[in-house]
């Protein structure tokens, strides 16, 4: 087997990133949103719609989702750069990132963004500890299109975002990515067994 450099492996793995999605959460009236490109369909059964997503433990959203077992995942259109910048480049710990972003509370009491390609309201049914992050497995309990009420435009992919983000954002994007990579490298091997409390209760 050829030995590939870590950078080459990382570039190959980028082929396995997901579309760029916005993930919202809510706890005790505090509403938040973040960006991810690590979401995937987690069930092929149309009657059991499921998805999963990896969220770093240093993100505020991680705690909100872990503590409430609820989140909404939004597919975005490929013109929603500003929203990605707002939700994905700074933490919501100290600010209200959803202020000024039109939304309503969905069936689970979690913000549903008006402007998106489509959204999936999810209830967490299991989690996997990944050391530096948690993989949340969610049952999809409600679905809708954005305010246009039908699929509009194309879905934002991770590759499209990286290639077309405004040049003035790139240095900050690279800095944030490097910091997240350092965090992940330090904690990736510290995997702990975790039992999702929702399962314990059932
Ligand atoms: C294109 C893109 C993809 C991202 N993917 C992830 C991801 O898969 N998992 C993650 O935990 N953070 C990801 N992030 C970073 C979070 O969105 C970012 O840390 C955000 O500020 C977290 O906000 P919060 O602290 O309010 O939860 C991504 C950011 C961008 C711009």
Describe the structure.
The chain has 202 residues and is an alpha+beta fold. The chain has a single domain, classed as Pnp Oxidase, Chain A (Roll), CATH 2.30.110. The chain has helices at residues 6-13, 60-68, 81-88, 158-164, 170-187, 197-201, and strands at 21-27, 30-36, 39-41, 50-56, 70-75, 103-105, 111-113, 118-129, 133-145. The model has no long low-confidence stretch (mean pLDDT 95). Flavin mononucleotide (FMN) is lined by residues 20, 32, 34-38, 54-56, 59-61, 84, 88, 90-92, 133, 161.
Note the quaternary state here: single chain
What's the pLDDT, averaged over the residues?
95
Question: Which structural category do the helix and sheet elements fall into?
Answer: alpha+beta
- Radius of gyration equals 17 Å
N-to-C series of helices and strands: HEEEEHEHEEEEHHH
* End-to-end Cα distance: 46 Å
How would the blueprint of this fold be written?
Layout: H1 6-13, E1 21-27, E2 30-36, E3 39-41, E4 50-56, H2 60-68, E5 70-75, H3 81-88, E6 103-105, E7 111-113, E8 118-129, E9 133-145, H4 158-164, H5 170-187, H6 197-201
Antiparallel strand pairs: 1-2, 1-5, 3-4, 4-9, 5-8, 6-7, 8-9
The structure holds flavin mononucleotide.
Residues 20, 32, 34-38, 54-56, 59-61, 84, 88, 90-92, 133, 161 line the site of flavin mononucleotide (FMN).
